TrEMBL record:
InterPro entries: ALO_C (IPR007173), FAD-bd_PCMH (IPR016166), FAD-bd_PCMH-like_sf (IPR036318), FAD-bd_PCMH_sub1 (IPR016167), FAD-bd_PCMH_sub2 (IPR016169), FAD_lactone_oxidase-like (IPR010031), Oxid_FAD_bind_N (IPR006094), Vanillyl_alc_oxidase_C-sub2 (IPR016171). The keyword Lipoprotein does not apply. The keyword rRNA-binding does not apply. Residues 12-192 form the FAD-binding PCMH-type domain. It comes from Georgenia alba. SUPFAM superfamilies: FAD-binding/transporter-associated domain-like. Keywords: Oxidoreductase. PROSITE patterns: FAD_PCMH. Gene3D superfamilies: 3.30.465.10, 3.30.70.2520, 3.30.70.2530, Uridine Diphospho-n-acetylenolpyruvylglucosamine Reductase, domain 2, Vanillyl-alcohol Oxidase, Chain A, domain 4. This is D-arabinono-1,4-lactone oxidase.
Length: 433
């Protein structure tokens, strides 16, 4: 057990708990059984107290799969033994150890002619941690990454092994870490496919508000970025896939031509960190994330905040975003607007409704960010905005709890698997119950 303080990826906060890093599932089960309070940590890319533990904090990083091409960039001193995923060629399902990063899984699948249908903006995050917080990418037809889940294996509060599938699956897709220590997950895959991306900008803010539906359907995945410093979206990223690649690219988006040089989502940051643009086709895993697996994602020194707003309120919420230019001046590095399709997970912010995601990369200044979070909440709360489970917010927990119609079902499932609440922390109690 380690007493060294563990900070999150961006260094914006310290994760509470005494770190245990088992090298076998038997050791992990033993650590769970002997603790009164347990939480798991993935790749530590969350920004709030979702991971905190009052006692034991377990990382399964030694049981992750590392693709040989990425071991040098994994950030690990010693690569763990390769815990190979298992691909079932007949069903297309892949079983993968929970702390494996999307980057490693994507390469494993690529070698076998398969892919996941979508990715978040970065592939550096662990599978279990991403699913637990309803991590998503973009695309009118693309739901959260947890929509691919077909089975979960976990260590329960007694240290026993459980398999969750079928009717329990919608409870387990987005678990906030409250159901147990997830050891492996089975995900549905698709045939490998190519994607190409072209970046347009700057596009006038009004044109995005008025043309949002049309713009978000220009490709398989579309992201609009604004720094809110001027009345524009500095860049609109259009990612096309499959048969979309047969059609010519639009010559312009809302009157703005495509850029003729690579761009980083945060203006001024080296575009070498971003995935290839200029319409050059490549594998899905190397285009759908904005950030390259072997480079630093985003800004690094940052705090993130995000609201998911039901799609029917897109235009009002976009205007509310513009209204944040003044309160967020000097604090916002970039804001991103994406589309996320409805899914069935009980704790998904997109539960049975298509949403628009309003994301903010803010400077890493905890006090100043905390001071403006009420303004961000006031902008999106009137449109039933749900905060992202892995990011900071000043939302009213009672308002948020009321937005999840299957919340009680989740609590029942959690109570069945973990009657004494060993895996529940303050975060789960505050936001779910
Ligand atoms: C640069 C950057 C870009 C991002 N881009 C996106 C994006 O495009 N879309 C988006 O939606 N989000 C995005 N995020 C947020 C990120 O996807 C989430 O915070 C996600 O949870 C990170 O995964 P992780 O492995 O780091 O999880 P962690 O932060 O380590 O953990 C998150 C939760 O998962 C639980 N957990 C982890 N492992 C296990 C396990 N084995 N068993 C049970 N519970 C477990 C933890 O207890 C915790 O509750 C971004 C974050 C950063 C820093």
């Amino acid at each position: 057990m380690s007493t060294v303080a563990l900070s999150n990826w961006s260094g914006s906060r310290t994760i509470a708990g005494a770190l245990v890093e088992p090298t076998s599932l038997a050791d992990a089960a033993e650590a769970v059984a002997r603790s009164r309070h347990v939480r798991a940590t993935g790749s530590r890319h969350s920004f709030n107290d979702v991971t905190d533990s009052a006692e034991t904090l377990i990382s399964l990083r030694h049981l992750a799969y590392r693709h040989p091409r990425l071991t040098a960039t994994s950030g690990e001193d010693v690569p763990p033994p390769a815990v190979e995923p298992e691909l079932d060629e007949a069903t297309g399902r892949v079983r993968v150890s929970s702390s494996t990063r999307y980057a490693d899984l994507a390469l494993y699948l690529h070698d076998r002619g398969r892919s996941l249908p979508n990715f978040a903006s970065l592939p550096h995050i662990s599978v279990a941690g991403s699913l637990a917080t309803a991590t998503h990418g973009s695309g009118v037809g693309n739901p959260i990454l947890a929509a691919q889940l077909s089975a979960v294996e976990l260590i329960d509060a007694d240290g026993g092994t459980r398999l969750l599938e079928d009717e329990e699956l919608d409870g387990a897709r987005v678990s906030l870490g409250a159901l147990g220590l997830v050891t492996s997950m089975a995900l549905e895959t698709v045939s490998a496919f190519e994607v190409a991306q072209t970046v347009y900008g700057p596009v006038p803010f009004d044109a995005v508000v008025e043309g949002f539906e049309e713009i978000s359907r220009l490709g398989y995945s579309v992201s609009c970025f604004t720094t809110l410093r001027e009345d524009v979206f500095e860049s609109v990223w259009v990612k096309r896939a499959g048969t979309e690649l047969d059609a010519p690219w639009p010559s312009e988006v809302a009157g703005t031509p495509a850029m003729d040089e690579p761009f980083h989502p945060i203006p001024g940051v080296d575009p070498a960190n971003a995935t290839a643009q200029l319409g050059e086709a490549g594998p899905s895993w190397d285009r759908l994330p904005h950030f390259r697996a072997d480079h630093m994602p985003s800004a690094g020194e940052e705090i993130q905040c995000e609201y998911l707003v039901p799609r029917q309120h897109a235009a009002e919420a976009l205007r509310a975003l513009r209204g944040l230019a003044e309160p967020l001046a000097g604090l916002v590095q970039v804001a991103e607007v994406r589309s996320v399709a409805a899914d069935t997970a009980w704790l998904s912010p997109m539960h049975r409704q298509d949403c628009v995601a309003f994301h903010f990369t803010l400077v890493r200044d905890t006090a100043r960010v905390a001071a403006v979070l009420p303004a961000v909440d006031a902008a999106f709360a009137p449109y039933d905005g749900r905060p992202h489970w892995g990011k900071v917010t000043a939302a009213d927990p009672a308002r948020v709890r009321a937005l999840y119609p299957r919340r009680e079902d989740f609590l029942e499932l959690a109570a069945r698997l973990d009657p004494d609440g060993k895996f529940r922390n303050d975060f789960v109690r505050r936001w779910v119950g």
